[in-house]
Amino acid sequence: METETSVPSPENPSPTRRQFVINAAGVTAATALGAYTAFSGAPRRARKGRTPVRLWHLLSAEWLEPVERAVARFNESQSRYDIVPLLLTGSEADSKLLLSVAGGDPPDVMLAWTQGTSVWGEGGLLQPLDRFMTPEEKKTFLTEAYPVVSKSGWHKGHLYGITMGFDLFTCYYRTDHFREAGLDPDRFPTTLEELVAVGDKLNRFDSSGKITRLGFLPQTFSHYVASFGGGFYDENTHQVTLNTPENLRALEFLVETRKRLGLQEVIRFQSGLASDSGASWPFISGTYSVTLDGEWRVEQLRRYAPHLEYRTVPLPPPKGGKSLASFSDINYLLIPTGARQPDGAWEFIKFWTGLDNQERAAEFFPWYGWMPLFPRSAQAPVYDRWLKTVPPYRTFLRVAESRNIVTTPPVPYQLYLRDRIERADDLAMRGTLTPRQALEQLEADIAQERDRRRKLGYEE
Fold first, then answer.
1. What does the pLDDT read at residue 2?
2. Which superfamily is assigned to 169-327 in CATH?
3. Is residue 6 scored above 70 in pLDDT?
């Protein structure tokens, strides 16, 4: 099985999307309303003779300069439109979008984290992007983009959000821990069951038997269902799939693995861990030997642990499962209903994502440490030069080519569904419910929500 070895680099990477969302938490809806009111009266700073196109985004700190650089590149590439960017905080973004559409003065284009394009599309808050596409652009998007990109953002046959950055999950492992335990770091396990057995050899305990280092502990239900052949949505029948044999097998495997260490002992151990941001991430501190995590960690490691020896490898499937499987969260570019300049917004979307020039857009993605939308962008010389500084990132690009990737189901109650899935995961991991009971409760909760929506006259 191929692995990628890290290479130290003096470059300072951008902070992660997840870190930003966490740090931005706590801003109230009242603040969002105030921010919206203040912005509505602000003068536009578009160049004379150009049509202003307002962009709202959530890229702060070290990300702010790269997004403004991308905006400048677009503005310099043509003479008709002038993108005017505005930074929002993560917790105000959704409220501000709702308020701006209701008030008749939304942005022309918005970069959003929330996995709610189906909810917003169903509610009439977003314009379908496929209506702006030429037949050639639609064909390019559907046939040349990574599979997870081309299938994401759709609802009832319309594309309400186009991907601009997406997360995948692979295994990070410390080669020094492998050697210390007498394991060959060049021979990573080929099945999930073997990986759990290797994790047992990497575990460490103090004199009282308390965990001091976790070799490997599979956790987060949604991140493992794909490798067990499961998922939460059937793309052929357009139905949610919750209490299925594959999903049950995945949840039972996670719970049984945790039980071997002791449910309460794991909770105690994890409650004592420091924040996973910066240099305090448990993988950097050595508290985890192997962990399943996202691509943004590569940049975090380069910044905070440039000399740490580690590798990345796709999650090995369980026996009878699927390889190159992952879960994905998506960042979406949206055009709200009521946008004054949707045509200018679409021109910017095509430019930034690479839909109209994949090689040109390849330059933008290393600025953020993101995966591009198209393999051709990843193969461009400018992107390949960046990859040479972060070889572990190539593992994520390899997984991106797979069709075994699960995303948030495109149903109009998807935010509620995500919340209930996380709740079922938590109840099972704490031992409050058995995996079977947790999935039965999940299915009952969603059935109740669908029944409630029907009674209120909403379509499914």
1. 41
2. Periplasmic binding protein-like II (3.40.190.10)
3. no
| Mean predicted confidence (pLDDT) in 110-138 | 95
Q: Does domain 4-167+328-406 have CATH number 3.30.300.20?
A: no
Query: Is it the case that residue 43 has pLDDT exceeding 60?
Result: no
pTM for the whole structure: 0.87
Say whether pLDDT at 55 is over 50.
yes
Contact 150, 142 (CB under 8 A): yes
Beta-bridge mates of residue 292: 171
Closest of 293, 288, 248, 275 to residue 395, by C-alpha: 293
Do the strands 162-166 and 405-406 form a parallel or antiparallel pair, or are they unpaired? unpaired
Q: Where are the domains of the chain?
A: 4-167+328-406, 169-327, 414-455
Mean pLDDT of the chain: 89
Residue 25's pLDDT band (cuts 50, 70, 90): very low
